[in-house]
């Protein structure tokens, strides 16, 4: 349903008919699809939590390397986060403490290891844009 609003906005900007394909307009506007936009927002908030610049009410997220017994494993040197188990698969998987680590762990290490928030935003948007529109050359 929310994709329809995004498509309608792009059609309004480019004076398109409802029968026209919308993908080229979204690419020209450099807009992420709605689901990737949600992933972008969650990933940025997760970055802020991991680097200690987020509001405290979001709470800490557990790094895999911080788990007991993980010190000698190869995964101890990664920036991967622990995804807690959920009881209610639909509602529970949308909670920030589950969705944040899940999305974070799907990102390449070269994106999660950047030190600046502005650089992270640039890289994550480029990564998600490439997933949204795989046929487009950036």
Kindly give the count of domains: 2
Order of helices and strands: HHHHHHH
User: Helix amount, in percent?
Assistant: 40-55%
Choose one word for the global shape.
globular
Largest sheet descriptor: none
Task: Name the structural class.
Answer: mainly alpha
Say how many strands there are.
0
Question: Any low-confidence stretches, pLDDT <50, length ≥5?
Answer: none
Say what oligomer this is: single chain
Overall radius of gyration = 18 Å
Question: Whole-number average pLDDT?
Answer: 84
Note the gap between the termini: 28 Å
Query: Percent of residues in beta strands?
Result: under 5%
Note the total helix count. Answer: 7
Write the topology of this structure.
Layout: H1 2-14, H2 23-29, H3 34-50, H4 89-92, H5 96-106, H6 109-112, H7 117-132
List descriptors.
0% strand; 52% helix; 2 domains; globular; mainly alpha; single chain; 138 residues
Structure, described:
The chain is an all-alpha fold. The protein has two domains: 1-31, no CATH class; 35-132, no CATH class. Helix content is 52%, strand content 0%. It contains seven helices and no strands. The protein has helices at residues 2-14, 23-29, 34-50, 89-92, 96-106, 109-112, 117-132. It is globular and about 50 Å long. It starts with a helix and ends in a 6-residue tail after the last helix.
